[in-house]
Amino acid sequence: MHKQLLKQQVCTAIKEHAVEIIALANSIANQPELGFKEHNTANKIAKIFNQYNIPYTTGHAITGVKGRLSGKTSTRNIAVLGEMDAVTCFEHPLADGNTGAAHACGHHAQVAAMVGCGIGLITAGIMEHLDGDVTLFAVPAEEYVEIEYRNQLREQGIIGYLSGKSELIRQGAFDDIDMAMMIHLSTEGEAERTIQIGGTSNGFIGKMIKYTGKEAHAAGAPHEGVNALNAAMIAMMAVNAQRETFKDEDYVRFHPIITKGGDLVNIVPAEVRMESYVRARTLDAMIDANKKVNRALQAGADAVGAQVEINDLPGFMPMINNPEMSQLFSNNATELLSEQSIKQLHHHAASTDMGDLAHIMPVIHPWIGGVKGNAHTRDFTVSDPEMVYIISAQCMAMTVIDLLTDNASQAEAVLNSHTAKMTKKEYISFMDSISKK
Ligand SMILES: [Zn+2]
């Protein structure tokens, strides 16, 4: 059947199931869960997979759910991803009262778009025309947060890396996948219905930092103490003193939080804990900036005679979008919207673990408008449900059709022109090389 007709049919089918797709999105938004804890979200996805007789497996990197739609032949396997995790934002109107988890990054919409794409492909009978399979993969823990908690999981051997996709790669959950796509919501150009394609973003090294001083009466005998909070403050200033050495084109970011600042106000702080990332545009810049940051962190301790323990943790790789897949997605988005709605992205200083996948296979991570308010804040809300849940699903389904029709010739073309930055083995050894205490 002609590709164009298949695309029309899948778009109609997705539209016909809009109520169901949006209900799933709302249900996930109303029960937000933090990374590696998305058990209710995973159950909701499994329930829909059951309803549509989609074979699936669960428990990938704790909560991941992996479903598979079989094509006429199974030459290639394209993954459509949706992230399940929320961020912490107690002030968000839909935040969980206990944990503060809220879908203030819109990952609930990614799951809805992924499921919507799958429902469209099944109910329109598209799969029997495709020379390849489609993996619908609900993935955990994109947000790199609660570092201490995750590091405990790591020390217990429950996970090896601290984010969903890196851990899924390590576990081999992407070994059977040739390429992947996922949408993300964007607050850029919120008034318009825009889709942003391509571009790159920063990678980072994760850090846990602990200053150990000596407690003493804060007023009666401060001379007998060693103030760990002063050590941390000097360290942060020492990092600031190096910012002029970071090159503009490297987009270096260091943004620590203090997770423990002392015990009681009348005791000299004996233990101070910090979490941070060192982000940059390239692996070399990440490693270079991290050396300087560690030097500064040590200087804070030395200045007051405290001890510092720096725990460097594998974070995210810089993001790269596959140009051929981006072009296919962009063409499809143009059909549904207009040429003016499609924007080309440049570099972004934030990070995504889609970058990890991008280092071992072709991927795309387009940004979809239709939300208001900044990401990770109380104001973040979906303002255009059609754009966010339906058009995003339609664009992905149409791109799958492009890739897997005509003996999957487009998928083969993407793979032929693609040179992976790393093999999986090289990726694992890079990630392991970052871990240092
Ligand atoms: Zn996000």
Concise overview:
By secondary structure, this protein is of the alpha/beta class. The chain has 13 helices and 22 strands.
Structure description:
Helices cover 38% and strands 22% of the residues. It contains 13 helices and 22 strands. The strands form six sheets. Strands 1-2-6-3-7-19 form a six-stranded mixed sheet. Helix 2 (18-29) crosses helix 11 (385-404) and helix 4 (107-123) packs across helix 11 (385-404). The longest helix has 22 residues, at 283-304. It starts with a helix and ends with a helix. Bound molecules: zinc ion. Residues 105, 107, 142, 184 line the site of zinc ion.
The dominant shape is elongated
Helix run count? 13
CATH-assigned homologous superfamily of the largest domain: Zn peptidases
- The unreliable regions are none
Radius of gyration: 23 Å
Give structural attributes.
437 residues, alpha/beta, Aminopeptidase, Alpha-Beta Plaits, 2 domains, five-stranded antiparallel β-sheet, 22% strand, binds zinc ion
Topology:
Layout: H1 3-16, H2 18-29, H3 39-51, E1 56-60, E2 64-69, E3 73-83, E4 87-88, E5 101-102, H4 107-123, E6 131-139, H5 147-155, H6 164-171, E7 179-181, E8 184-185, E9 195-197, E10 200-201, E11 203-212, H7 228-240, E12 253-254, E13 257-260, E14 271-280, H8 283-304, E15 307-316, E16 319-320, H9 323-336, E17 342-344, E18 347-348, H10 354-358, E19 363-364, E20 367-368, E21 371-372, E22 381-382, H11 385-404, H12 409-417, H13 424-434
Parallel strand pairs: 3-6, 3-7, 7-19, 8-20, 9-17, 10-18
Antiparallel strand pairs: 1-2, 2-6, 4-5, 9-20, 10-16, 11-14, 11-15, 12-14, 13-14, 21-22
The structure holds zinc ion.
Zinc ion is lined by residues 105, 107, 142, 184.
